[in-house]
Amino acid sequence: MLENKGLYSELTARCADKDTSSDMKDTSGERVLDVIKRDLSRTFPEHPSFKEPVMLNNMQDILAAFCLYRPEIGYCQGLNFIVGALLIATQRKDGELLAEECFWLLVALVEILPDYHSNKMTCLNNDCLVLNDLVRKTVPQTHQIVSLFGLPIQMFVTKWFVCLFVDVLPFHTVLHVWDTLFYEGNKMLFRVAVYQFVLHKQELKKLQDPSGLAMFFRELFWDGKAWDNFEYMRKVFKKTRQMKRKYIEHKRVTRASETEV
User: Fold this and answer.
1) What residue ranges in the chain does DSSP mark as E strands?
2) Are 160 and 193 in contact (CB under 8 A)?
3) pLDDT band at 225 (very low <50, low <70, confident <90, very high)
4) CB 109 within 8 A of CB 101
5) Helices (H) and strands (E) in the chain, counts
6) pLDDT at residue 21 above 60?
């Protein structure tokens, strides 16, 4: 951030310029700012802070500035949840929002990830297939149960990767996961995702139909098993200690080559 002092202010100023904002369009031709504004109201709608104009304005500024800073990514749904979580996490006791700090944290987080937030989302789809392989290897019986319902794993885990587990795990646990991302790299996403299947294997055995499976994954946030973030992360590392980076990268290459064919 210090190396780019003033850049965030410059980017937000450019976004405020009518000519610049009019030129910022997504692949469908719609103005990016219109898409962002539409998603603001969908971001933590029950949280009182996200009913305040100052919070929504800062979110819009950060997301629009990111579009200019990383035009090859632009805006993708999911980034709004990450930015919202960052604003809450960094908010001072007096209520001050640290928008510039949040912007650079967003930049840093996205740089750790594969190309999840691009328009094609090729890397995201590929990593969902890799996760499917890892679940099959780690908890084969659970994988078999989920597969019997005929629903692809992507239906449930895409949000986990795009939103970095926001609205999937409790807020304080999400921040703990993000801390480890900076240390462990994006391998950590697989470790946490696989552990979700390990942690809930007994509940998954009891499901009777596809609708029950879909409901189960939608309500993971409320099951209480991840509220103790330190215990949760301790078990993530313990239960997935055999998951090596080299193996994950091998599966990524293998899956990517299969997709290309």
Assistant:
1) none
2) yes
3) confident
4) no
5) 15, 0
6) no
The residue assigned the tokens 């992360």 is: 233
DSSP labels for 29-80?
S-BHHHHHHHHHTTSSTTSGGGGSHHHHHHHHHHHHHHHHHSTTT---TTHH
Pick from 158, 231, 227, 146: nearest CA to 189: 158
CB 49, CB 36: distance < 8 Å: no
Pick from 129, 128, 132, 139: nearest CA to 161: 128
Per-residue pLDDT, 19: 54
Measured CA to CA, the distance from residue 237 to residue 216 in angstroms comes to: 24
Strand partners, 31: 25
The pTM (predicted TM-score) of the whole model is 0.89
**At what angle are helices 187-199 and 122-138 packed, to 10 degrees?**
50
Beta pairing partners, 166: 169
Q: What is the pLDDT of residue 27?
A: 52
Spell out the residues 6+ positions from residue 79 whose beta carbon is closer than 8 angstroms to its own. 63, 66, 106, 110, 117
